[in-house]
Design a protein that fits this description.
The protein contains seven helices and twelve strands. The chain is of the alpha/beta class and 240 residues long. The chain binds zinc ion (ZN).
Length: 240
Amino acid sequence: MVAIPILMYHQVDTVPPSGTPLRGLTVSPAAFARQMRLLKWLGYRGLSLTALLPYLNGERQGKVVGITFDDGYLNNHTHALPALRAVGFSATCYAVSARPGGINDWDTGIGVAQKPLMDVPHWREWLSAGMEIGAHTRHHADLTTLSDDEAHDEIAGAKRELEERYGVEIAHFCYPYGRYSVRDKALVAAAGYTTATTTHRGRAHSGDDPLLLPRAMVANGTWPWHLWQKVATAYEDKRR
Ligand SMILES: [Zn+2]
């Protein structure tokens, strides 16, 4: 079985002081650029979910890595985009569709620094640079707490909202907080998404359920040898 790592990033920015909650989710711009160069040097191609799909389906084989960003931080545009372009990689960034130009206010109360999200012009530049937009609900909702109607609005509504705004097909979804139920997965399928990513650890394998794809988190503490281990070995798979 062919293993396909899908990397999960959040913020690419100056790493906040130690003690800051969720600090590990921020990767410095220099570290991110190093990680992209390392993957390229190892012979991997970093791909958006749409470009990765033939590999997930088992139609194509090669050294590929999915690259994903959750939430749509402006620092992804500022710092990750140039590093991706420098090595010719593509990536999927999951947008909170009702919050263009907003902040990560869903993290309010747990002490996480509030950071700006990409605005509509940033997202357009993201697209025109060959990158992809995925959906991360309308309001970064914990789907498991919502009624059927509310969950439908967050899942199908985000797809419609992003498609109308950017004029492209939105085919990929990511469950906020990695939380979902059987119902939510059914709503993702009914809305017409092709894939959905979770926070389950592991590399994807061709033949996996495309609406429950596992990912490998890359954090502040992910050193180059550790990234290699996540991508090229069964290290992450054992933790599924
Ligand atoms: Zn998120």
